[in-house]
């Protein structure tokens, strides 16, 4: 007998305010105009004046959508969008990084490289500069031993108290590598080298469904977690994409129904759709969503537009439905370089899975 928890799209209805719905509608209208220009661009790519005209239109529409997203999120204290929070000089770096991830020519190795950078930036957004007044000193022994052994001093924000109760909650499988990256950031900033415990949740959107009737299936038989270890903790979710918010809400609602009372919940996404972000903060209390980039809309299949496609597939490759890899096989397929980079995290995950 299956041991699945299922959330349906309709269960998410009712959380959004009338204002949210109005803003989502405005965004859909703007994006529909962009789609008209995409069609023209694809059809007339050999006509320079058409290309210039439609490109100008798209640039203008993206400016308008960006302004609307900034306005919508400005009054939402639980939504942190990198470019809306951080100073202007850092925006170009993030914009270029997202452009690389979106590009269909960016293959697996480069995709992994940019995802690693994305989560370092997200970590910094939540815990880094300005967040901590006091500093820890790193005293580093360098390889230079002439004329004597050299040591260097580096000051980093002292975030020991903020991270000491963190638990990584992994939404398998797209979020596996991002969660290892985030846990390693915690470890590197911790003055005691704290390695987060892991809680692993096998969650899947039903790809045969559309946005309106989407189902989010949490397979408890393929999940590994200890409810007790989540009580009073700072739960961290790090997933490349948040589209409708349904996968995240399914897990968090399940945990809350089981009586788990987290101290806080932080969600980190590389790209989050406006609607999905609003669905999360409207349906869960005490949660903060950090996203490197916000995308305007979803298509009928609940994919983010313009998006970057299926992040799980781009990170992990495609699994056959009838023969999906288990978590140990997924980690093995990252290869020895990544496995050794995230050695402590792999050890912790194996302990969680194998007992
Ligand atoms: O906000 P939502 O609408 O719930 O969508 C977001 C989820 O979709 C992706 O996972 P997917 O279901 O594609 O599975 P995967 O992790 O195996 O790629 C992604 O990694 C998120 O977990
Ligand atoms: O656009 C999307 C939506 C969900 N999951 C993804 O990987 N991409």
Automatic annotation (TrEMBL):
Enzyme class: transferase
Residue ranges annotated for the Phosphoribosyltransferase domain, each copy included: 90-315
Superkingdom to which the source organism belongs: Bacteria
EC assignment: 2.4.2.9
Coiled-coil blocks: none
InterPro entries: PRTase-like, PRTase_dom
SUPFAM superfamilies hit by this protein: PRTase-like
GO molecular function annotation: uracil phosphoribosyltransferase activity
UniProt keywords, alphabetically: Glycosyltransferase, Transferase
Protein name listed in UniProt: Uracil phosphoribosyltransferase
């Amino acid at each position: 007998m299956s041991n699945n928890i299922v959330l349906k799209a309709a269960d998410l209805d009712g959380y959004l305010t009338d204002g949210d719905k109005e803003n989502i509608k405005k965004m859909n209208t703007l994006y529909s105009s962009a789609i008209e220009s995409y069609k023209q661009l694809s059809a007339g790519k050999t006509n320079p004046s058409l290309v210039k005209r439609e490109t100008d239109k798209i640039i203008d529409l993206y400016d308008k959508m960006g302004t609307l997203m900034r306005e919508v999120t400005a009054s939402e204290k639980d939504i942190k969008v990198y470019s809306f929070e951080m100073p202007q000089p850092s925006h170009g770096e993030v914009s270029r990084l997202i452009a690389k991830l979106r590009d269909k020519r960016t293959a697996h190795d480069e995709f992994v490289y940019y995802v690693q950078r994305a989560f370092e930036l997200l970590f910094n957004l939540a815990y880094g500069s300005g967040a901590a007044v006091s500093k820890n000193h790193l005293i580093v022994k360098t390889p230079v031993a002439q004329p004597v052994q050299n040591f260097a001093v580096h000051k980093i924000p002292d975030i020991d108290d903020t991270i000491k109760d963190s638990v990584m909650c992994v939404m398998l499988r797209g979020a596996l590598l991002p969660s290892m990256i985030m846990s390693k950031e915690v470890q590197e900033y911790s003055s005691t080298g704290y390695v987060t415990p892991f809680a692993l949740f096998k969650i899947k959107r039903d790809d045969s469904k559309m946005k309106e009737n989407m189902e989010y299936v949490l397979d408890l038989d393929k999940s590994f977690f200890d409810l007790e270890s989540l009580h009073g903790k700072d739960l961290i979710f790090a997933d490349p994409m948040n589209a409708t918010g349904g996968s995240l809400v399914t897990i968090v609602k399940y945990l809350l129904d089981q009586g788990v009372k987290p101290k806080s919940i932080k969600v980190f996404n590389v790209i989050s759709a406006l609607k999905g972000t609003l669905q999360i903060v409207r349906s869960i209390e005490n949660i903060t969503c950090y996203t490197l980039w916000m995308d305007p809309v979803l298509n009928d299949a609940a994919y983010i537009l313009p998006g970057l496609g299926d992040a799980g597939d781009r990170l992990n490759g495609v699994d056959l439905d009838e023969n999906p890899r288990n978590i140990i096989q997924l980690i093995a397929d990252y290869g020895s370089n990544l496995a050794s980079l995230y050695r402590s995290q792999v050890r912790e995950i194996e302990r969680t899975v194998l007992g």
